[in-house]
Amino acid sequence: MKLKLVALVLVAVFCLMSVKASFGDNYGVKFVSCVTSDNETSPDVGSVSAYIDNDKYLICSVDDGYCGYEGYVDFVVENTATDEIVFHDIVVTVDDGTAISVVVSGVSIGDTIAPGGTVSGRVSISVLGGAAQGASYSFSVDFVFVENFV
Predict the structure, then answer these.
(1) Distance between CA 64 and CA 101 in Å, rounded?
(2) What is the C-alpha radius of gyration for the chain, rounded to an integer number of angstroms?
(3) Which of 4, 27, 90, 133 has the CA that lies 20 to 30 A from 69?
(4) What digits encode the pLDDT tens for the residues 66-121?
(5) In sequence order, what are the beta bridge partners of 51?
(6) CA 95, CA 75: separation in Å to the nearest integer?
(7) Which residue in 37, 80, 39 sits closest to 56, CA to CA?
(8) If phi over 0 gives left and psi between -120 and 50 gives alpha, with beta otherwise, what is residue 28?
(9) Can you tell me whether residue 66 is helix, strand or coil?
(10) Closest to 82 measured CA to CA, from 113, 104, 124, 55
(11) 72 vs 50: CA distance, rounded Å
(12) Are 139 and 60 in contact (CB under 8 A)?
């Protein structure tokens, strides 16, 4: 009876490990850089800022944006794992979707990164007509990866 219980527990643990590996959790992948810019020349009113949180999340904000203001965050993601990985999902969490629009380019779901390889992309932020004057708006970008089982 004990042997059957131990075998059942081992099978359950193995299944749970397989599910986690197949759905991904960003292990072995990290943001390695981010650089901001915008479409302003003069006057310089709005600003965009970004930082990398725990190597996994790109946290961005727009300050003093106005309708027509655009900010950009160029980023690099590195595969530090020993296996090729695949972009499984791109999750953008915006505080106020009526004030800003966020588009990620340069990477697409299904793209792969070889072990030790990097991929560059850009986050483009457009301030919409619903933005309040002098307000700050924050958002985050998170990539979900899975191991390439091919």
Answers:
(1) 15
(2) 20
(3) 90
(4) 899 999 999 999 999 888 989 889 889 998 888 999 999 999 999 999 999 999 99
(5) 59
(6) 21
(7) 80
(8) left
(9) coil
(10) 113
(11) 10
(12) yes
> Going by C-beta distance under 8 Å and a sequence separation of 6 or more, which residues neighbour residue 101?
125, 126, 128
71/46 Cα distance (integer angstroms): 9
Please name which of 148, 143, 108, 144 lies closest in space to residue 34, comparing C-alpha atoms.
143
pLDDT in tens, 4-19: 443 443 333 333 333 3
Q: Sketch the domain layout of the chain as residue ranges.
A: 26-147
Strands (E) located in the chain: 29-38, 47-53, 57-63, 70-79, 85-94, 100-105, 112-113, 118-127, 136-147
Q: Distance (Å, rounded) from C-alpha 88 to C-alpha 107?
A: 11
Residues making up the chain, counted from first to last = 150
Structure token pair of residue 111: 């793209």
Q: Give the separation between CA 53 and CA 56, rounded to whole angstroms.
A: 6
pLDDT of residue 1: 55
Q: What is the pTM of this model?
A: 0.78
Q: What average pLDDT does the segment 120-125 reach?
A: 95
Between 22 and 129, the more confident residue is: 129
